[in-house]
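Thread: Newbie trying to understand structure tokens

Hi all, I'm a second-year student working on a class project, and my supervisor (Dr. K.) asked me to get a predicted structure for one chain before our next meeting. I've only ever worked with sequences, so writing a 3D structure as a token string is new to me. If someone could post the tokens and maybe explain what I'm looking at, I'd be very grateful. Here's the chain:
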Amino acid sequence: MARNLDIALLRTFATVADQGSMTRASDILHLTQGAISQQIARLEALVGTALLLRHPRGLRLTPAGERFLGRIRPLIVTNDEIWSEIERGDVSGPVRLGLPFDLVDSCFAASLKSYCEAFPKVELTLVCAASPDLLDMVGRGRLDLAVIERAVDSEGGEVLAIDRLVWVGARAGQAHKRSPLPISLVGETCVFRPAVSEALAEEKLASRMVFETGGLDATRTIVKMDLAISAWLATTVPADFDIISEDAGLPPLPSFAITLHRADGARGAIFDELARQLRNAMARPRLAA
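---
Reply by user tm_fold:
Sure, no problem. This is what the structure looks like when written as tokens:
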């Protein structure tokens, strides 16, 4: 289960740790001691271990608490800097973000809306393309940030999530039973294409490409018409499609990493906050689109 840490909980914990007392922390935070005690208990439940111990001379950090405090201090500082800039109206300028077609709506739509509302002066440009193309654009400085899908064993980027690649067909469809196997992928540069080709080759399973030049919407239409099957990440499969079961005779497909990449020049509050929003989006439980 994904767990998200509220900045307010982190601030409460840091204040209590610095003061060594819930009484002094309550004066600083303008909260009752009961409220602070509840927040600390909630935080310890989230992280799964005790962070503070009572001592005759006050509260003391456990070894886990000391490590945790060291990790969260930069987060609190960054949060304060970002919102200070927002309140001064300093956060503005262009931001170029790249996302794969299949992740825009299923994973990031709500986060992008929140980001644009929080930074009304930021000019966000969204580029949707295949993962290899997005990675190339980051490397050339044509994008500031990009989320890409890549093989788990490849290097580069910050891993946001691991998801399994699955065979997808029309609801109660029959396309997966045909020979040669009809397949539709989004395009020739689709990052899943090598994995699909390798899996079929290992099983010596004949296949043919039905459609691969019209983008994700066209591929969805072809699959929904039961003219072909496709390969998508499990959490992006629409509710009105079927994930083809393993006993259907199709070869298994590997998992893929969803990674965040950032251009060297993408520094500052607007990029930090966008990166945070993207991380949080992948940390939240998601329903298929």
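A couple of things are worth pointing out once you decode it. Confidence is low (pLDDT under 50) at residues 285-289. The first strand starts at residue 52 and ends at 55. Feel free to ask follow-ups in this thread.
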